[in-house]
Amino acid sequence: MNWNEYAKCYDLLCDLSRIGRLSLPSDASILDLGGGTGNFLCHGLPAELHRANLSHLDFNEGMLGAAREKYKKEGLSVELLHADATRYELPPSSFDCILSVNSLYAMSNPVSVLQKVYSALRPGGLLFLVNLGRIQNTLDWTLYLVATNLIRLGPRRVIELLRNEGSTIAKANRRIACEQRHHRYWKHTTAEIGEQLTRIGFRVDELRPCYRGYSDLAICTKPGPSAQCLGLQSTQLLLSPLRSYSHPRSVYRD
Fold it and tell me: Taking the complete model, does pTM exceed 0.85, yes or no?
């Protein structure tokens, strides 16, 4: 998988993504694990957390380079960690919140990484996880991206995308699907990832499919005495070009 090429057009997939309010202190320690091009720390966090202690971990230089430029432009102070999450030892009980958005599935031992995440969170800390679990229909996903970006970018730019970045995205998605079919990338149902998170020790507060049903959203808490101090309140999740399927009791909505 050529992640450097994918990095050049990665923002077309998620640059409108954002998380609503996270009930975290303004000086919280937040890690974006497999942070890609930095979309979530730039555009996903509420403004009051932009001065929090922010870290971004990714093994790909292309993704990190794009993130570095974004953080500079946005005036964010973010510690950039060039590392493989499967090998990097996260300090225990050191983060109030860890984000991981569609990156865990491609790691060689995702369950081990989740165990590291659990250890690295402080009691009451939050895990915000979006993970690709099913094989994408490449045509379906490509058409959806075209439709979404047509509204956002206009027809001329979309035609340019189809000629240039569109082929790279389609090629990357076909490669990801091939890796999933050969069991080199993690596949799971919504129930299976929920069960795995529970076995590790998380309290699963929210679990549902998203990204047109190909991925799962899980919001989890590490139990502990401060679990009532951190958390989610009046939270809205907008993930575009995601299409989320909301649980009736969900506190998140499109």
Answer: no
